[in-house]
């Protein structure tokens, strides 16, 4: 078997700091899309007050956190599984749910295909159309389910990232529910990655999904709650599915501080509201500015990042490199399957940081024209 290429991700500020010989604090990271307001101040307090937990193993059941999540999504704690980031759960899916053939939409998050490759499974890609602004092709997924191609291996699962990364496109909850019903009828798993759904809660199927025995919804505390360093994600599914997934996780995979911080973050609804309002406003401002850069194309955004194409003749990798030298990290998407070489992704950050990026970006692009 050909060696599996390791997915490239944003957010590696450590490598950038070593490479540029500069402290982490001088870098501005637009490559991982994390809440620009940072975690709730209540998280800091909760972690400090929880220092007495350090000499103990963490609660292997993440009991308090699961209670809180179940209350939030109107289900029972048996329907919630917490993992070491949603990434841990992505890697548990193929084995736990016996997925040998996964269908996904490209461009999308690279780890779904990587986890299938690691499990020795197969992936079929349905490409979102650039001319349709990378809208999620729900109807094509639906048709594939209803009429699988003759001779093709049975489809075990569909993975839909909604909103999708890196494109930022999202479909409505009605469409996802239609797909969920079709998947349920066919005995096919539907995994919906809602890592960025906090930015468009009306598109989430979460309160409804727990009624389906074939649907798994994935969430994360990384992005919206600003806790990437603590690694907390979770899945909501039928209790039997949660049991299957749990078997694949190592014991104590979620550390004590992660559990405490996640709980405090979920309870701070005022910070959540403020974060959402801030990002939506700043995203609109950024989008307007970026769309005004000559030759750049911007795509509809439903998360806390913007997906765009540079002018013809540019390469995402070249711009990323140039900005990196100034301590500005963006996500080069030129090698993401289904995206073109001019594609980049930029997270929405503070107004001040965003202005700095806009200034550098327009300077670099105009220098190349002159
Ligand atoms: C779409 C998507 N899903 C899942 C993850 C994994 O997130 P985490 O493991 O931090 O919860 C990421 C991280 O970048 C992502 O972009």
Describe the structure.
The protein contains 13 helices and 13 strands. With 370 residues, it is an alpha/beta fold. It folds into two domains: 13-37 and 273-369, Aspartate Aminotransferase, domain 1, CATH 3.90.1150.10; 41-269, 3-Layer(aba) Sandwich (Aspartate Aminotransferase, domain 2). Strands 2-8-7-6-5-3-4 form a seven-stranded mixed beta sheet, with helices on both faces. Helix 2 runs antiparallel to helix 10 (256-267), helix 3 packs parallel to helix 10 and helix 4 packs across helix 5 (111-118). The longest helix is centred in the last third of the chain and has 23 residues, at 269-291. The radius of gyration is 20 Å and the shape is globular. It binds pyridoxal-5'-phosphate. Pyridoxal-5'-phosphate (PLP) is lined by residues 85-87, 109, 161, 165, 193, 195, 220, 222, 228, 233.
Name the CATH homologous superfamily of the largest domain: Type I PLP-dependent aspartate aminotransferase-like (Major domain)
Query: What is the structural class?
Result: alpha/beta
Low-confidence stretches: none
Radius of gyration, in Å, reads 20 Å
The profile of the biggest β sheet is:
7 strands, mixed
Per the principal axes of the C-alpha atoms, what is the gross shape?
globular
Order of helices and strands: HEHHEHEHEHEHEHEEHHHEEHEEEH
């Amino acid at each position: 078997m050909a060696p599996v290429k390791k997915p490239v991700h944003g957010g590696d500020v450590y490598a950038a700091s070593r490479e540029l010989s500069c402290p982490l604090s001088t870098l501005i990271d637009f490559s991982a899309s994390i809440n620009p307001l940072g975690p709730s101040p209540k998280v800091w307090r909760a972690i400090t007050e929880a220092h007495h937990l350090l000499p103990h193993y963490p609660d292997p059941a993440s009991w308090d956190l699961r209670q809180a999540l179940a209350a939030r999504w109107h289900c029972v704690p048996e329907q919630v599984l917490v993992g070491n980031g949603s990434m841990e759960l992505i890697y548990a899916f193929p084995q736990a749910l016996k997925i040998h053939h996964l269908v996904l939409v490209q461009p999308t998050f690279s780890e779904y295909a990587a986890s299938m490759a690691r499990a020795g499974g197969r992936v079929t890609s349905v490409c979102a159309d650039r001319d349709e602004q990378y809208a999620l092709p729900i109807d094509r997924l639906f048709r594939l389910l209803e009429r699988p191609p003759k001779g093709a291996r049975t489809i075990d699962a569909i993975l839909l990232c909604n909103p999708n990364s890196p494109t930022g496109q999202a479909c409505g909850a009605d469409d996802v529910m239609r797909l969920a019903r079709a998947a349920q009828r066919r005995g096919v798993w539907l995994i919906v990655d809602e890592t960025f759904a906090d930015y468009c809660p009306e598109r989430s199927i979460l309160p409804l999904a727990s009624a389906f025995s074939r649907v798994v919804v994935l969430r994360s505390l990384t992005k919206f709650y600003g806790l990437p360093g603590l690694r907390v994600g979770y899945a909501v599914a039928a209790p039997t599915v949660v049991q299957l997934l749990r078997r694949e996780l190592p014991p104590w995979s979620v550390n004590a501080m992660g559990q405490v911080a996640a709980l405090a973050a979920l309870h701070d609804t005022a910070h959540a509201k403020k974060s959402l309002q801030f990002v939506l406003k700043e995203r609109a401002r950024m989008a307007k500015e970026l769309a005004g850069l000559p030759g750049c194309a911007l795509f509809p955004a439903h998360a806390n990042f913007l997906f765009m194409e540079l002018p013809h003749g540019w390469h995402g990798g070249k711009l990323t490199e140039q900005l990196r030298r100034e301590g500005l990290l963006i996500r080069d998407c030129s090698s993401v399957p289904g995206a073109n070489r001019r594609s980049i992704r930029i997270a929405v950050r503070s107004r001040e940081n965003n202005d700095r990026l806009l200034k550098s970006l327009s300077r670099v692009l105009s220098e190349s024209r002159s």
